[in-house]
């Protein structure tokens, strides 16, 4: 039987040089790209909300210990939302593969800085391909 290859190659990234921790995604997929940029916007909005809530905790009543616990709870809440968004966008279990049992703002930032160039490059290539004038009929 003849074969028609339609699927484009996935981006596969090894996390921290650990070959047992690999994530895979298809940045040329429009749905993936939409979900990724939606996640980035959600992450940015959440960051602003957390900053506001953290300021309120800092200025509010309570001991230093109570405030520290409230700030940690706020951070835990933020990471729960972030992990859910990453799993929704990249596939179930991705956040665990990337972060393990650790939640760190620095790790989250490195994750987004690490995957974004692959997504931007693939999306730009898709747009350029779409905007090119075809040499012939679409069916040729």
What are the salient characteristics of this protein?
140 residues; mainly alpha; 64% helix; 9% strand
Please count the helical segments: 4
**Residues in helices, as a percent range:** 55-70%
Q: Which spans have pLDDT < 50 for at least 5 consecutive residues?
A: none
What is the gyration radius calculated from CA atoms? 20 Å
Write down the secondary-structure element order: EEHHHH
What percent strand? 5-15%
Q: How would you write the strand order of the largest sheet?
A: 1-2
Which geometry do the CA atoms define? elongated
The mean pLDDT is 90
Description of the structure:
The protein is mostly helical and 140 residues long. It has four helices and two strands. The protein has helices at residues 30-59, 64-90, 94-99, 105-131, and strands spanning 11-15, 18-25. Strands 1-2 form a two-stranded antiparallel sheet. The longest helix is centred in the N-terminal third of the chain and has 30 residues, at 30-59. It is elongated, with a radius of gyration of 20 Å.
């Amino acid at each position: 039987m003849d074969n028609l290859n339609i699927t484009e190659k996935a981006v596969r990234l090894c996390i921290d040089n650990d070959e047992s921790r690999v994530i895979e995604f298809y940045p040329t997929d429009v749905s993936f790209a939409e979900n990724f940029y939606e996640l980035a916007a959600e992450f940015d909005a959440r960051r602003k909300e957390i900053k506001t809530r953290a300021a309120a905790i800092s200025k509010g009543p309570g001991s230093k210990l109570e405030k520290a616990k409230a700030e940690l709870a706020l951070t835990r809440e933020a990471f729960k939302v972030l992990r859910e968004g990453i799993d929704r966008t990249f596939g179930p279990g991705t956040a665990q593969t990337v972060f393990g049992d650790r939640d760190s703002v620095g790790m989250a930032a490195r994750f987004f800085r690490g995957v974004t160039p692959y997504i931007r490059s693939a999306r730009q290539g898709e747009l350029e391909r779409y905007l090119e004038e075809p040499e012939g009929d679409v069916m040729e």
